[in-house]
Design brief:
alpha/beta, Aspartate Aminotransferase, domain 2, Aspartate Aminotransferase, domain 1, seven-stranded mixed sheet, three-stranded antiparallel sheet, about 35% helix, globular
């Protein structure tokens, strides 16, 4: 596929492959506008630009996400209010969300943590009452569902990442912005295409009348026909290249297969974890499907299971993991903006004391999954019962030798 594209003579910076990927993606989600960009971070940067933030405005955001979700806000003279999360889902808590709203609140940025959709009916109902824009960070959520609808089609603006760690990839990097509003979609298209995001008006005497140049010699755009009024922002080059888009289209066709494999891995882990009373799995609202970008569970220190000790013992057995994510309001740059410990006590308690993330990727083999499940089983038995880990006592499943 890629060899054919490279040898086709077509423009590799943008064309039919990108158009096909965007069309297929929009149809998959059920949104009228899907515009690809170079990364999920760029998608979020552009989405935040669309808010037209001014000094003194406020934005509410979840602290339980990767820093790219809110880092663009450091470039604006606005106040960020971090909203605590639900202890069962690690998603933004709708009740806390509403308590943070003021007359200056312009938007809320939420994340479907680990691929488990937020309680979007509650969030959007609150946002509509207060005239607040809802931005969905869907970096984890491609392949999940919320009561028959898909993330990215549940609010005002959706942002997706196609990083190599995500649910599909476009050669390592890529992103998508999804919208229902055609006017906003036009602004996104201008921004990503190195055009100014501005308000234009037709000229009485277009510049085109002042030159004898042939039309095909004129630079594309509005320079010959329009004047410019309000300039919001300058544009940038954020168009997704053709090879990336071609891979994205193929990956999207495999969506059910890839999410199905993640679900299979999750079932294997859950089978082990449900044996232990001091362990509970991530859970959300009814009527949702988890895409299992991350597999998350929680341990209760009162049961004798200490999270840090558990993770250290798993690491000693060769189980590689990352705890995602360090609460954003405690990062150095946000503490410099006045945030500190105690602002989001649930998020802090979960991350520092209870949360565990296990590897969950469709590229894992059955043998790898079962070795990992066996290690988790053995370590938890030692934590709960004081039973030392011995060779031959681990869980036996297919592929484990």
């Amino acid at each position: 596929m890629l060899a054919q594209l490279v040898n086709s003579g077509d423009n590799l910076s943008g064309g039919r492959c990108r158009e096909e990927f965007e069309r297929s993606f929009g149809e998959y989600l059920g949104v009228p506008h899907a515009l690809s960009v170079t990364s999920g971070t760029v998608a979020l940067e552009i989405a935040i630009r669309l808010l037209d933030l001014r000094a003194g405005d406020e934005v509410i955001a979840t602290p339980q996400t990767y820093k790219a979700s809110v880092q663009p806000l450091l470039n604006y003279p606005v106040k960020v209010r971090f909203c605590d999360v639900e202890p069962g889902s690690l998603n933004l808590d709708p009740q806390h969300f509403e308590s943070l709203i003021t007359s200056r609140t312009r938007a809320v940025i939420l994340v479907h943590y680990g691929g488990l959709p937020c309680d979007m009916d509650a969030v959007t109902a609150i946002a509509r009452r207060h005239g607040i824009t809802v931005i969905e960070d869907c970096a984890h959520a491609l392949g999940s569902e919320y009561r028959g609808r898909k993330p990215g089609a549940l609010a005002d603006i959706g942002c997706f990442s196609f990083h190599s760690s995500k649910n599909i990839t476009t050669l390592g990097e890529g992103g998508m912005i999804t919208l229902f509003d055609g006017a906003l979609a036009e602004r996104v298209d201008r921004i990503r295409s190195n055009e100014a995001d501005a308000v234009y008006h037709e000229q009485v005497r277009p510049i085109a009348e002042r030159t004898s140049a042939h039309p095909w010699m004129m630079h594309p755009g509005l320079a010959f026909t329009h004047g410019c009024g309000t300039i919001r922002y300058g544009g940038t080059n954020a168009t997704l290249a053709e090879p990336n888009a071609a891979v994205g289209t193929v990956q999207l066709l495999r969506m059910d297969e890839l999410v199905g494999r993640r679900a299979e891995i999750a079932r294997t882990y859950t089978e082990v974890l449900t044996q232990f009373p001091g362990v509970r799995m991530q859970r959300g609202t009814e009527g949702v499907r988890n895409a299992h970008h991350l597999y998350t569970f929680f341990v209760d220190p009162a049961s004798g299971i200490m999270r840090d000790r558990l993770v250290s013992r798993l690491d000693a057995l060769g189980v590689q993991m990352q705890l995602r994510y360090f609460p954003l309001h405690l990062l150095s740059e946000w503490r410099a903006m006045g945030h500190d410990l105690g602002e989001c006590p649930v998020a802090e308690r979960m991350w520092f004391e209870q949360q565990v993330n296990l590897p969950c990727h469709p590229g894992m083999t059955d043998r790898q999954v079962d070795r990992l499940a066996s290690a988790v089983d053995a370590v938890l038995r030692e934590e709960v019962r004081g039973t030392p880990i011995e060779a031959g006592t681990a869980r036996k499943t297919k592929g484990w030798t």
